[in-house]
Specification:
The chain is of the alpha/beta class. It is built from six helices and seven strands, in the order βαβββαββαααβα. Helix 1 packs across helix 6 and helix 3 runs antiparallel to helix 4. Bound molecules: adenosine-5'-triphosphate (ATP). The site of adenosine-5'-triphosphate has 16 residues, from helix 1 and helix 6. Its EC number is 2.7.4.3.
Amino acid sequence: MMTGITGTPGTGKTSIAAELERRGHAVVRLTDTVRPYVIEEDCDRQTLVVDVDRWVEEFEPLDGFVEGHLAHLLPCDRVVVLRCRPDILRKRLLPRNYPEEKVAENVEAEALDVILIETLEEHPDEHVLEVDTTDLSVDECADRIGRFVRGELPPSYGSIDWSDYLEVGR
Ligand SMILES: Nc1ncnc2c1ncn2[C@@H]1O[C@H](COP(=O)(O)OP(=O)(O)OP(=O)(O)O)[C@@H](O)[C@H]1O
């Protein structure tokens, strides 16, 4: 079974995937797979522009976790959408020295549920788990994801409304 771990940058995909790997799961990081599909580098936004269609088409499925903010575009059997309250997400992104525009863009996308909406366009409700990492530890998030893939925790999403935090993006 292939499980995608997706979410806005800073929601914790890398940290949680590392913990899942430590627990013995196979993990593929999308940053390690997109290199051959990069069309251009947007230096101003410190972002790679990827030929997503070709990358999805040629992606080799695996039994384990796929981590990255495009993971929900793959034909995953399950998708975990990591979330983080926008004011805390801003704090997590600040040490990265991203341009302010990029921080604001990500914080706003999180407040608007962009990745969750994209995920639900690609996957049936019963395959999706939303995990709010704001007040959880990495360990607790990994536990929750482990229970979801074992079928012990039912799918769920939609309890988050961060529209009040929209101004945090600016
Ligand atoms: N419950 C949590 N789960 C994951 N990360 C957390 C949690 N609480 C705090 N953090 C912190 O938030 C940050 C998340 O960064 P991380 O690189 O894992 O995010 P990411 O979603 O992989 O970002 P990117 O898409 O840019 O790679 C880390 O500094 C981590 O220590």
